[in-house]
Design goal:
Layout: E1 2-6, H1 11-22, E2 26-31, E3 50-54, H2 60-68, E4 72-75, H3 82-87, H4 89-110, E5 113-119, H5 145-167, E6 171-176, E7 179-180, H6 191-201, E8 205-208, E9 214-216, E10 218-219, H7 220-232, E11 240-243, E12 248-250, H8 251-262, E13 268-271, H9 273-277, E14 286-287, H10 292-298, H11 306-316, H12 319-322
Parallel strand pairs: 1-2, 1-4, 2-3, 4-5, 5-6, 6-11, 7-10, 8-13, 9-14
Antiparallel strand pairs: 9-12
The structure holds uridine-5'-diphosphate (UDP).
Uridine-5'-diphosphate binds next to helix 6 and strand 8.
């Protein structure tokens, strides 16, 4: 396999690069390093089958040139994290819409297959007990950045789907549900690395709202191999498939668990949503995946418990005792 990974220096992208190299693939990473970091690829730096290109998916000619040399594209580059979306709405829209169109168009020209990373955000406020792929999308006004992000990702999916219908592009879409693991930064909003860093630094754990909102966190180690397996499965082309974890938790319970697993004495504080994200922000109360389709297609069976996920992040940060106490506090 000759693979192009857009966003390959990001959290999920870099784990995917590790996995592809281990499978023997030749990998080109395209990343603009806006939220990703070269340090995420330290483990594979200098690998003979890896090439790193700094650049944007908005650069049509560059995307075209790199795609022409590959047979498989994993399109993960996107504006990610609630804080990024809220703080840079226009840039996020452009990246998520034009960027994806560039990638799909380049793949069509090259005859490459594509995996498009989408998100559980597309389901919006639907809080069903296990969202399957046919679940309705319940979105607020598109003028609210959170929902404009969901709208853009929904259009990305549609574009990939239509490229398949119209041009025969082999495209699979994955909807990722709160994927977490080592290398994920809390800088752009993601709650698990934020809580872990806060706990390790002895700072207060900041729960937004009242902490009764619920999520189901999935391990990057479960999700990444499934992405590759899905693209290999022809019956997964032309459809969107949920990927995520299996263990639901309230954010309050998550904060308590992080405190216990890090042995931290940090207090837990409650921050109003307006203070965290600005006026008019809407959170969803619950988001739980139904991963039955992935199970039927590729035997997907996520195995990492929430405790194991938290522990893997704590360990990657050097464990409770080794953390750099002098590190700058989180400012988001
Ligand atoms: N959250 C929190 N404290 C933080 C960051 C996030 O309580 O420091 C909450 C956030 O409001 C949401 C949940 O944790 O209810 C998950 O947030 P994240 O941004 O990780 O994912 P998403 O909102 O996309 O599910």
């Amino acid at each position: 396999m000759r693979a192009l990974v857009t966003g390959g220096a990001g959290f999920i992208g870099s784990h995917l690069v590790d996995h592809l190299l281990a499978l023997g693939a030749r990998v080109t990473v395209l990343d603009d390093l806006s939220t990703g970091s070269e340090a995420n690829l330290d483990q594979v730096k200098g690998h003979s089958q890896l090439r790193f290109v700094t650049g944007s998916i908005l650069d049509e000619r560059l995307v075209d040139r790199l795609t022409a040399e590959t047979d498989t594209v994993f399109h993960l580059a996107a504006a990610v994290g609630v804080h990024t979306i809220v703080d840079h709405p226009l840039r996020s829209l452009r990246t998520n819409l034009h960027g994806t169109e560039n990638v799909l168009e380049a793949a069509r020209r090259a005859g490459a297959r594509v995996l498009v990373a989408s998100t559980s955000e597309v389901y919006g406020k639907n809080d069903a007990d296990g969202l399957d792929e046919e679940a309705d999308r319940i979105l607020g006004s598109p003028l609210k950045s959170r929902w404009s992000y969901a709208a853009a990702k929904g259009l990305d999916e549609l574009m990939a789907y239509v490229y398949g219908q119209q041009y025969g592009l082999e495209a699979a879409i994955v909807r990722l549900f709160n994927v977490v693991g080592p290398r994920q930064t809390g800088r752009y909003g993601m709650v698990v690395p934020r809580f872990v860093d806060q706990a390790l630094r002895g700072e207060p754990l900041t729960i937004y709202g009242d902490g009764t909102q619920r999520r189901c966190f999935g391990s990057v180690y479960d999700v990444v191999p499934a992405m590759v397996a899905l693209l290999d499965r022809k019956s997964a082309h032309g459809r969107a498939v949920n990927l995520g974890g299996f263990q639901e938790t309230s954010i309050r319970a998550l904060a308590e668990r992080v405190r216990e697993l890090t042995g931290s004495a940090s207090e837990i504080v409650y921050v109003p949503y307006e203070e965290a994200y600005g006026e008019g922000y809407e959170d969803m109360q619950r988001r739980m995946p139904d991963t039955g389709l992935a199970k039927r297609l590729i035997g997907y069976a996520p195995s990492y418990s929430l405790d194991e996920i938290i522990t893997s992040i704590v360990a990657a940060r050097g464990g409770p005792r080794l953390v750099d106490q002098a590190a700058a506090p989180l400012t988001v």
